[in-house]
Amino acid sequence: MSASLVRYKRYLACMMSFLALLLPVGVAASTERPNFIVILADDMGWSDLSFMGSEIHTPTLDGLARRGVTMTRFYVSPTCSPTRSMLMTGVDSHIAGVGSMEGVQAPNQLESINYAGQLHNGVVTVAEALKSVGYATLMSGKWHLAKEAAQYPDKRGFDQSFFLAEGGASHFNDAKPLYRGGHASYFENGEAVVLPDDFYSSKNYTDKILEYINAVPEGAPFFAYLAYTAPHDPLQVPPEWADKYQGVYAAGPEATLRKRVAGLTGRGLIPADIDVWSAPQFPAFLPGAAPSWNERSLDERANDAKPMEIYASMIEYMDQQIARLLASLDAAGKLENTYVIFFSDNGPNGATPLSYPNMTRAWFHENFPDDAVKQGGEGGHLFQGREWAWASAAPFRLYKGVVSEGGVRSPLIVAGPGLERNKFSQYLASVKDISATLYALAGVDTQSNPVFSGKAQPEGKSLIRNWQDISTSSERRFAMELFGHQAVIDGSWKATRLMPPVGSGDWQLYNLDSDPSETFNLAAEHPLRLEEMVNFYMDYKQRVGVIPPRPPVSISFGDLFVGECGLVCEFAVDIIDFFMSIWVSLSAD
């Protein structure tokens, strides 16, 4: 072989290596770029999927998990819109403009852009970034990131969008709002629309995203964002689904939780013999107190199980709609080159509808009659509540609205080309990592792409290497804050500060490997570790512009139950609220 030929082959080898470095990780050397579908559930618990040990039938999502990777240490925000802001931008929710939810900001937060309750033009959405490199960008479902039309999806990079602007509403075409003074506004590409008579949220959101995907020109890559409002309250299903889970929950919330914990343990997802957090029970003399499950009559148990029956039906119905979507992609030959990502925006909702802004007990009972409520259909407003949210979040502590594991940990399922199959990953990840991963796969360079000029840079890390090899690991640490509640997650360690009335206001420390339920506070045993993590939080607070709410966020004791409350009950609630307000004020920063 001549020396010139040897040099030529070496040159080709070097060029091939150089070109490989330029390609996004995980993308084959092909001109066909991958498609992306991000599917978001709304207020779903960590253990609600059947492959995680649940009694709820989710064959489609189970199948997706078998085709790919399930991340068991994936973190979101405690509530809807902050999570969605981080998904869309890859930056912390405060930087994105959603440091708190619209309508619940404290007076001292209202002048800050970090607490505007909507996106702003200083951040780039994943739709804007992917559109800049030739992707068709499609959205259907709940937006919840705009007070003004300038921040609607059609103005933030989506070519096609059908969306509910607000955080929730009736799932039927009556479009009844969640709370007094609320709205349910539906738009398509920025124009108000009238819902069809047979509208049901999960079905019609799926119809629209399929319509949009089918209209994408052959060969063009697409990013589709499907944001369901299931299983967010009001818990409602079509009539033929109302009795699908009848009797399944007759044994009550604790029995359901224990069965799920056994399933999780058997799958190796949690340690054996852990102490599972127990939901607090009201003393019998307090308003809203309920007897233990075994002390309730059969009729009472049937009524109290109905919310969970409807909740489960909503999840299975959503799973069927996802099946329609994937089947259509498969039939069109598009599924093989598509990354499908599924997770929930936060944990299950343990609150009652009275916790919504401007809500009153009288308005709730006037607008949601008991007969409609009990049916779990149109016109009713069933809600999951503390007991069943405890079961849905198993084995974790607390639920939506709080930075405890039950509020901020969601299973993430991903399937797509080149990924591991039927594997659980314990890699520590955040919702901010999603955009970074899509950018790596699509070839978006945020440093050089003009759409990012002068805008906040994404903070997340690409997850593609871990999805390709779940043994991949790296040390990670991040912080979060919402409603004054604070947390730092550092590997297997977690420091939390839950403000009253949810917690004491003191920093606590947990080892999540041995204590995923956050039941053993190790602050006294590891003071230096806690001090380091608290210092990390203080740096985070300064960096992202956290403003502790003044006055502190609190609740009325009366908001914890929706039953009738007469004069004696109201007097008791006022007394409890008075002392609770003193406690909350004394614990404030």
How many individual β-strands? 15
Secondary structural class: alpha/beta
Helical coverage, percent range: 25-40%
Name the beta content range.
5-15%
Shape: globular
**Count of alpha/pi helices:** 16
Sequence stretches where pLDDT stays below 50 over 5 or more residues: 1-30
Q: How would a textbook summarize the main sheet?
A: 11 strands, mixed
Output mean pLDDT: 91
Any descriptors?
disordered N terminus; 32% helix; 16 helices; four-stranded antiparallel β-sheet; 589 residues; single chain; 13% strand; globular; alpha/beta; eleven-stranded mixed β-sheet
Mind explaining what this structure looks like?
With 589 residues, this protein is α/β, with parallel strands linked by helices. It is 32% helix and 13% strand. It is built from 16 helices and 15 strands. Strands 1, 2, 3, 4, 5, 6, 7, 8, 9, 10 and 11 form an 11-stranded mixed beta sheet that branches. The protein has a 4-stranded antiparallel beta sheet with strand order 12-13-14-15, covered by helices on one side. The longest helix has 34 residues, at 298-331. It is globular and about 65 Å long. The protein starts with a helix and ends with a helix. Mean pLDDT is 91; it is low at 1-30.
